[in-house]
Amino acid sequence: MASTILLSSAYFPPVSWFAAAHFQLPVQIEYYEYFEKQSYRNRCQLMTANGINTCTVPVQHAQGKKQLMCDIKISYSDNWQQVHWRTIQSAYGRAPYFEYFEEYLEELLSTHFEKLVDLNEATVLFLLKHMGSSLYTSPTTRYEPEPAHTIDLRQAIHPKRKDTTYIAKPYQQCFAEKFPFTPNLSMLDLLLCRGPKSVNVLGTLNP
Predict the structure, then answer these.
(1) How far apart are the first and last CA of the chain?
(2) Neighbours of 111 (CB within 10 A)
C-alpha cells in the first residue's frame, strides 16, 4: 500500500498536481531528478483574452551537461517577473478574488529567488495557504528510480502528456464567453476564480 505521493517541483502547478497532493498522504517534492525542459518545472498555463498563455521562468543552463533540479538557477537577464505579473493582471484583473490576492502575488513575483526549487516552493505555499489547505510538503533527499510504497507522479503530470487519469470539476473561468471550460490550468486560475472554495473543485486523479 502506498504511503507517499511523489511529485515534481512545479511553478504555480496545475490543478491536477494539487488533486494528486490531496490523497491524504504525505507529499514529497523531487529535488534530485534532472531538470526537464518544456515541463511544469519552470512554466505554468493561464487563461487570457487570447487563449492559453504559457508563462516560463528562464533558467541558467550548464553547457553540455544535465543539471539536477536542486541546482537549477533562475536567469534574470530578461525581466520575466514583470512580464508574468502583467500577464496575471491582464488575465485575472476582473476575476472574483483577484483583489484579495493582488498584493501577495505582486510581492511574490518581485522577490529575487536564486534557485528554481525555491521559487516553486514559494508558489506552492502561496496557493496552499490561500486555498485553505493544511497540506504539508517536504523535499526528497536523494533520487530513487522506483521508490517503494510511493505513488510516483513525477512524469505523469506534464503539459505534453494527455492525462487520462485526471477528471476535472468545471468552474466558472475568466473569458468563459469566448472559450469553453479549460481543465488543468495553473492552480492560480482556480484560486483567483473560486478563492477559498478552490479545494472543493480540485477534481479527482486516479493514478
Answers:
(1) 13
(2) 11
Q: 163 pLDDT exceeds 70?
A: no
Q: Which three cell numbers stand for residue 103?
A: 498584493
**CA 183 to each of CA 22, 44, 73: distance values in angstroms, whole numbers, following the listed order:** 18, 13, 30
Measure Cα distances from 70 to 34, 37, 40, 114 in Å.
9, 15, 15, 11
Give kind and range of the element (H or E) at residue 88.
Answer: helix 80-92
Q: Do 59 and 74 contact (CB within 8 A), yes or no?
A: yes
Closest CA to 119 of 13, 46, 39: 13
| Closest C-alpha among 159, 149, 150 to residue 10 | 159
* pTM of the predicted protein model: 0.95
Q: What is the pLDDT of residue 71?
A: 97
| 116 to 56, 87, 121: CA distances (angstroms) | 11, 20, 9
CA distance 46 to 3: 32
Q: Tell me the HSE value of 148 on the side-chain side, using a 13 A CA sphere.
A: 0
